[in-house]
Amino acid sequence: MTISKGTIARYTEDFFPEILQTRKYLHKNPELSFEEYKTAQFIKTELKELEIEFSDGYVKTGIVGIIKGKNPGKKTVALRADIDALPIQELNETDYKSKIPGVMHACGHDVHTSSLLGTAKILQHLKDQFEGTVLLVFQPGEEKLPGGAKLMLEAGALKNPKPDIIIGQHVMPGLQSGKVGFRQGMYMASTDEIYLTVKGKGGHAAMPHQVTDSVLIASHIIVALQQIVSRNAIPFIPTVLSFGKVEAKGATNIIPAEVKVEGTFRTMDETWRKEAHKKIKAICESVSTAMGASCDIEIKPGYPFLINDDEITKKAKTYAEDILGKNEVVDLDLRMTAEDFAYYSQQFPSTFYRLGITDKKGKNSHPLHSPYFDIDEEALKTGMKLMAWLAVSFLNET
Questions:
Q1: Which pLDDT does position 1 carry in this prediction?
Q2: Is 142 a catalytic residue?
Q3: Which of 128, 336, 351, 396 could form a disulfide with 189 if both were Cys (CB 3.0 to 4.6 A apart)?
Q4: CA gap 171, 108 in Å, rounded
Q5: CA-CA distance, 178 to 12, in Å (whole number)?
Q6: What phi and psi, each to the nearest 5 degrees, are found at residue 175?
Q7: Is-cis flag, bond preceding 17, omega within 30?
Q8: Where are the domains positioned within the chain?
Q9: Rounded to whole angstroms, how far apart are CA atoms 373 and 330?
Q10: Using an 8 Å Cβ cutoff, are 354 and 332 in contact?
Q11: Collapsed DSSP state (helix, strand, coil) of residue 61
């Protein structure tokens, strides 16, 4: 029996009121990365009520639900939602405002989780009408290195059964609710953290000849490092090197003995990424040495770049147009932000798409990680409906 778009749409409408309350509950009760114990318990309770099998305890709070259709060994599609929140104080005034001081779902992970629970309800009701298996991946720690995706994979969360395809979605402020966006190929950047400590000789600012000016040297290093992008990067490989924190604990008349500098390096080519790390270290060492100081350098490798499988993404976009309408599906630009879904994309054919959350009047367009972040709640319908449709469409392919 073929599952119709109308059936998916009907179940979406039926389950929407409950999923809306789920999202509000999750938004009111956010938990930081790798501390999502109550969130995980809530998810497990929901899966139990739906009589969906699951395994848990991955990276402490990770959960993988499993829905077996007819002929479950034919093909496996994994659907992923991240469950962690951010260390941000919410400034919205709503009845579902975060009640946890300094913690907020400001990146939409409450939306991803509630949407996937809605998708689970739909698919559980239809499991006798599709071929294969669906994995429901509720993943902790997307917002914090080394990334919950990496740790879930290392823990064997997706080994049995191994997915043939994995699909993820992420909210997108500025994209109208009801719309989604796709991009084939490279989509999001790798991300590395850079920590520099420039060590000189501190002293009185009025006697610069008696000190080794760590502030001046750190400034030269930051300027010199800009050539990594402007003169060393291959022009057609997207590359960003930015520094957002400089800490010099001196005063108007004190030159400190050391200065700490923190930044990020992002690109979309693994060979160039490794080469750039070497160049960063070489420039820091040469500039500091030439000016009579030293520089401790730590580069923490973060998430790899995210690549959307060409064939899978092309099909997913077509399926999305089928159930949402062509005008509701847009093409996305490259992004230099990062996502730990990239770890999945490096191992399995995958697609990671964007979910519009801004209403027609432009409300709910505050950026991700804003203390005013919120969504048009109608977006939950699109999220749960599309994921369910993508799952059954891929599973029922001949």
A1: 57
A2: yes
A3: 336
A4: 6
A5: 13
A6: -95, 130
A7: no
A8: 5-188+305-395, 192-301
A9: 22
A10: yes
A11: coil
Tell me, yes or no, if the pTM score tops 0.85.
yes
Catalytic residue among 31, 46, 82, 84: 84
Which residues sit opposite 297 in a β-bridge? Answer: 196
Backbone angles phi, psi at 261, to 5 degrees: -130, 135
Q: Selecting from 3.40.50.720, 3.40.1390.20, 3.40.630.10, 3.30.70.600, what CATH number does the domain 5-188+305-395 have?
A: 3.40.630.10
192-301 belongs to CATH 3.30.70.360: yes
pLDDT at 207 over 80: yes
In the chain, the amino acid numbered 182 is F
Q: Is the pLDDT of residue 214 over 80?
A: yes
Q: How far apart are CA 184 and CA 331, in angstroms?
A: 9
Residues 129 and 243: their CA atoms lie apart, in Å, by: 53
Task: Give the residue-averaged pLDDT of 331-349.
Answer: 97
The residue-averaged pLDDT of 173-183 equals 97
Axis crossing angle, helix 379-395 with helix 5-28, rounded to the nearest 10: 130
- 285 token code pair: 């060492």
Six-digit token string for 261 = 């500098």
Residues 95, 27 contacting (CB under 8 angstroms): no
Which residue among the candidates 46, 90, 110, 142 is catalytic per the annotation? 142
Alpha-carbon distance 342 to 116, whole Å?
19
Residue 339 known to be catalytic? no
Q: Contact 285/199 with Cβ under 8 angstroms?
A: no
Angstrom distance (rounded) from CA 202 to CA 78: 56
